[in-house]
Amino acid sequence: MADQRLFGTNGIRGIPNEDLTPDFALRVGKSIGMFVSGEVAVGRDTRISGDMIMSSVNAGLMATGHDIIDLGILPTPALQYYCKTHGIYGVMITASHNPPQYNGIKVIDRDGTEIERPSEEKIEGIYGGNSFNMVKWEGVGRLRHVDDAIDQYINAVLSRVDVKRIRERKFRILADTGNGAAYFSTPRLLEKLGCTVVTLNANPDGRFTSRNAEPKPENLRDLMSLMADGNFDLGIAHDGDADRVVFIDERGEFIDGDRSLALLVKNVASAGDIVVTPVSSSDAISDVCASVGATLIRTKVGAPIVARTMIQNGAVIGGEENGGVIYGKHQYCRDGAMTLSLMLDLMARSNRKISELVRELPQYFLDKRQVERTVDWTLLERELRRGEKVDTTDGIKIMKEDGWILIRPSGTERILRIYAESTDMAAARHYADQYVSKIKDLQEKLG
Ligand code: MG
Hints:
Elements: E1 12-14, H1 22-35, E2 40-44, H2 50-63, E3 68-73, H3 76-86, E4 89-93, E5 103-108, H4 117-129, E6 143-145, H5 149-158, H6 163-169, E7 172-176, H7 185-192, E8 196-200, H8 221-228, E9 234-238, E10 245-248, E11 254-255, H9 257-268, E12 274-278, H10 283-292, E13 295-299, H11 303-313, E14 317-319, E15 325-327, H12 336-350, H13 354-359, E16 365-372, H14 377-385, E17 390-391, E18 396-400, E19 403-409, E20 415-422, H15 425-446
Helix pairs in contact: 1-2, 1-4, 3-5, 5-7, 6-12, 9-10, 9-12, 14-15
């Protein structure tokens, strides 16, 4: 049997009892068990099917001789931190920001990072081979619960910021944990930072009835309107597994992920430091790096690629425009609680309102579109780059005097993503319009 691809860009994803059945999860668990060594830490987000999928994966791991450390419901970065500090493999049952019916399986390496593609291929090969070394009865793994993983994680995050200075400011924070994995940990962290915390959706509800798990402005209307009343210093919202966080200013305005990343880079990076971000991120990050004397490396789109590039280059900070920020001193993965703490640290240091800090950043405007792809990408790419100055790190990025246009084929759907950025809002819109129609015309001609 040919090796079957199981892992997508973010682990294995599916709908429980449709494609993500207990039988499938059991066989995945056995396959992971044949690949990893030693004890395995497991955790999950708040999804309804979490216990079922986790039980199946655990059974597969124990059948192949692994003891399980069950960390319960916690953010993905808290599990990653546990793996890193204890030097053990981990499995996270989560579908991050996907709709409530989904769930997923993610494998964490002993250094706390997501396993790399070659390791996923090994697990897929074992799965496809369908032959497992089941241990003798006396070697079957056992399960124990550890209930202080969240505290270990929170203490690690706190050790990276000036707690005293933050506590003195007595920030008022409105925290929307979106019924997800940080429903307990983020309010606890904020209390330890001396904040007055009002929570929204801080009950673990795996049906995500209050809001969609993706922290985008259209899903955060409650949070934004409550912020607009003006009683808080900062509003925050996580995705389902809290590796990401987005911010709302004291007036109720959503802060784009590019801008919050640029703000953090400005405050964390100094001369000689390395910063990593994908080609899709704003030039505001390039400008900020130039202003502090840091070197910016741009990668393909995807958090694991950003994390690996950071490790290879000893980068201090990196991240994506969706609120996923990686702080190298803490750990090389996206971490919502760490990102939130860094933001409070810089607010405490500056003694200014968050909206004022954002306003001082270089201003860029991004227009995002998508178009159905009807012809082969290589054909289209050849036409699009004709006569243009391009960067081919990921898709093609066409460089203009006053901005850029990035066109990337999606890895999972037959669509093209178009990003157009400029210092001028009208120019960004013009470029986006221009390339949407250019691509449609080209596809008609080539199709
Ligand atoms: Mg996530």
